[in-house]
Amino acid sequence: MEKAVIAIHGGAGTLSRSNTSPETARKYTEALHQTLLAGQAILAAGGSALDAVTEAVRLLEDIPLFNAGTGSVFTHAATHEMDACIMDGRRLDAGAVAGVRCVRNPILAARAVLDNSPHVLLISDGAEQFAREQGLEIVAPDFFSTAERAAQLRQARGQEQVFLDHDVPVPPISPDTKFG
Amino acid sequence: TVGAVALDSQGNLAAATSTGGMTNKRPGRVGDSPLPGAGCYANNANVAVSCTGTGEVFIRMLAAYDVAALMEYSGVSLPEAADRVIKEKLVALNGEGGLIAIDREGHVVMPFNTEGMYRGVAWVGDIPSVGIWQE
């Protein structure tokens, strides 16, 4: 068998080189690099693939650059509804949550469903109640909001469209810009 | 959407995916990320997969499981299965996005059909590698 390995992603979309500054690219690549180091360390210490992917996704959820956890995009109603899933290849065990609004790290709720529940997928109020019972961190709904995501929502509403993680088009001149 | 797949020293595979969904989505909308087999799948017999992209299309395709099924039933390699799912089947349904996957032998693929996908890989003992655009 090959060496232990971890791979991660932070979303896909219209990420043209011409619209991405070197500074922005550096922020993303540094965040990915640090996350990989954390996952790699777990595997190097003999940790399980399940623990490595849990920790990697937890870290990515805590980085506002990415559309998960803090930094999640807004719904049309200007709320956040997050989904997460984890699967263990040993026995096809799985745990998932959908539509959670106050669980700081949805992936930890999914992991708790896998570890401590006879179910596979819990949604909304039931998922949040389960997370509370599991002692997971609960936060205010605006914990997940960022100014960048709010601006993207305004733009998406204006165009009456929905967009992928990194697909909200940037107009040549911001409609918010004021000229003298 | 963020995700991770891993192979450990015991030969076990795992996958995880988490998302806020799509900007301006209707409240109550659920995408592929929390659905085992659609946006996230792991089976020690062949592969671990995490997806990102147009969730509704990934659900209809059972995209993550489709990679595993192609490998299991058709005997194709991971690169061939993943490319077929992302660059042929997803495109045919006007879906956008990509996936990351590791097979039980430690082969890694990260195909996508958008302009870019934030991604990276790290083998134990090696320097991590990250990327944004097509190489």
Write the layout of secondary structure elements.
The complex is a heterodimer of chains A (180) and B (135).
Chain A: E1 5-13, H1 22-44, H2 49-61, E2 82-88, E3 93-100, H3 106-116, E4 121-123, H4 124-133, H5 147-159
Parallel strand pairs in A: 3-4
Antiparallel strand pairs in A: 2-3
Helix pairs in contact in A: 1-2, 2-3, 3-4
Chain B: E1 2-7, E2 13-19, E3 40-43, E4 47-53, H1 55-61, H2 63-74, H3 78-92, E5 97-103, E6 108-109, E7 116-123, E8 129-133
Antiparallel strand pairs in B: 1-2, 3-4, 4-5, 5-6, 7-8
Helix pairs in contact in B: 2-3
Series of H and E elements of chain B? EEEEHHHEEEE
- The low-pLDDT segments of chain B are none
Q: Main interface pair? A: A-B, 91 and 78 residues
**Average pLDDT across residues of chain A?**
91
- Distance between the terminal alpha carbons of chain B, to the nearest Å? 21 Å
Number of helices of chain B: 3
Percentage of residues in helical conformation of chain A = 25-40%
Q: What's the tally of helices of chain A?
A: 5
Low-confidence stretches of chain A: 171-180
What is the 3D form of chain A? globular
Strand runs of chain A, count: 4
Percent helix range of chain B:
25-40%
Distance between the termini of chain A: 66 Å
Based on CA atoms alone, the radius of gyration of chain B comes out at 14 Å
Main β-sheet of chain A, in a few words? Answer: 3 strands, mixed
State the secondary-structure class of chain B: alpha+beta
Helix-strand string of chain A: EHHEEHEHH
Strand order of the largest sheet of chain B: 3-4-5-6
Largest sheet of chain B: 4 strands, antiparallel
The average pLDDT value of chain B, as a whole number, equals: 97
Structural class of chain A: alpha+beta
